Amino acid sequence: MARDYFPLKENMRYEYSYNSSEFEGEAKIFIDILKVVKKEGKTTAQAKMTFNLRDTHETEYEIKKDKKWVVTTDGIVIGGRREFPLPVKEGAKWDESPDANEIVSLTDKLSLKAGKFSQCMKVLTKIAGGDAGTAVRYYAPDVGYVFEDYYAEDKICKVELLSISKLKKEEAKKKK
Asked: Which of 94, 98, 110, 143 has the smallest CB count inside 10 Å?
């Protein structure tokens, strides 16, 4: 059975640490999956991202998954992007102008604050074809996005998964 590198499960919270050259200190990011709708070969999740540093910012966005792609309309480092093509296959390449992406491994192991992960997918991004830097991000099976190192001319960022939990009933209800 194929591994699910971006599971969309309702009422889940993903907590990340986020460091960036754009600000001092460590931000905490919460990604809440509020609602998941499946129909006609497509899954759409309503998500909320909460950015906590000195103040708090919230953004609602969508995550879409069909037979060909996993696409986010917002995100921690760069906003929306095509995360990766489906079915997942080592060596798969895609361009998101001006960036070039490739799935370079499906067997990486990571030890993070959230735990140890194996059989991780590693995506290498050459920013502006490699002229402006590189980014590496990892997705763990049955977990999703767990880590990203982003080295560009304009900023350097690191995102790490800290924990996954169920949303409390009050949070899930008031956010729908």
From this structure: 98
Is 3 inside a domain boundary?
Answer: no
The whole-model pTM stands at: 0.94
Query: Residue 101's domain is classified under what CATH number?
Result: 2.40.360.20
Tokens standing for 18?
A: 């986020």
Report d(CA 157, CA 159) in Å as an integer.
7
pLDDT band at 156 (very low <50, low <70, confident <90, very high): very high
CA distance 136 to 158: 10
Residue that the structure tokens 């008031």 belong to: 174
91: left (phi over 0), alpha (psi -120 to 50) or beta: left
Enter the DSSP assignment of 23.
S
